[in-house]
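Sample pair:
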Amino acid sequence: MDPVTPRGFLLVTYPRTASHLLLKILALENQPSVLRCDKDGYFFMPTVGPRFKTAGKHIDEWTKKERIMIMERHQACFNSLQKHIANGEAEGKNLFVKEHVNWLIEPVSETKFVFGKESTSESPWTVQMSSNQTHSSSNETILPDEFLILWHPTFLIRHPALVFPSMYRTTIDLNSAEKAKSDPFHHTEMTMHWSRTLYDWYCQRLELIGRANPRNKTWPIILDADDIMLDQSIVIQYAERIGLNPDKLRFSWDSMANEEVEKMWKVEKRMKSTIIASSGIVEGKTAQNINIEEEAKKWKVEFGEEEGEKIERWVRAALHDYEYLKARRFRPQD
């Protein structure tokens, strides 16, 4: 992919970060410079099903069948993304692709995160891109370094005191309160570790490139969901930065018709519940003046004492990474 035109923009998110709101505002369907794809990304969503079968399980305990199935699924997803890139190049259009960061993390890094850095000696997994590809030790994704560096990355973040209880509610709604208590994905989802480490990886790599190519000095970009909801100028300037027409942005819209909602599958309907019922940015969804001690009391009432304490621990553990990233977020005239 040519680093100037067309360009690839990667939106790195995690669940409940208001990514659907950001995409609604950007209105990519009205941006002729962008080649859209189904769901505006989520190429690696098909890995979730197979990974659920091994979630919470040490990689050394995976069966040969599980290893083959999961590696083949990641490779197929990667191939689909590569095809989209080729189509963008052929049409001379930019790409804007959204992916949840936890879907990109390779299994060895997950095992080390859950069970400890010294818990396995296995080498990191990497999808196949070329015969001379590399995978640096600080790259915790399943993607080769050479592929990651092709993209102009944006990291979307949101306060964990809003994200984690929302994720927990979603688990309850889609499964049950009992299953939520032991959901194996929570160990790797209720964290901002993956966003932080991938952001740091990009900073280090793009600094090297930036010395030869000044265009890259503005990357990676961090967007905070609060800023998207409170300050239109942030989204306008961001749109300009990624080559979108700011006149095509949309800050109000018609709520989705019931007929359209009924066609959506259960998970999508739940994950987009706020945006489906809205006609614009909904007030009261930001972390302004949030008090974790007070919120924790509410979580214990809503989810029970033990689960409320669990959510509080996750939130407090993620605060350092959140504040680190927030301090580096995109601001007007950056």
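The two ends are 26 Å apart (CA to CA).
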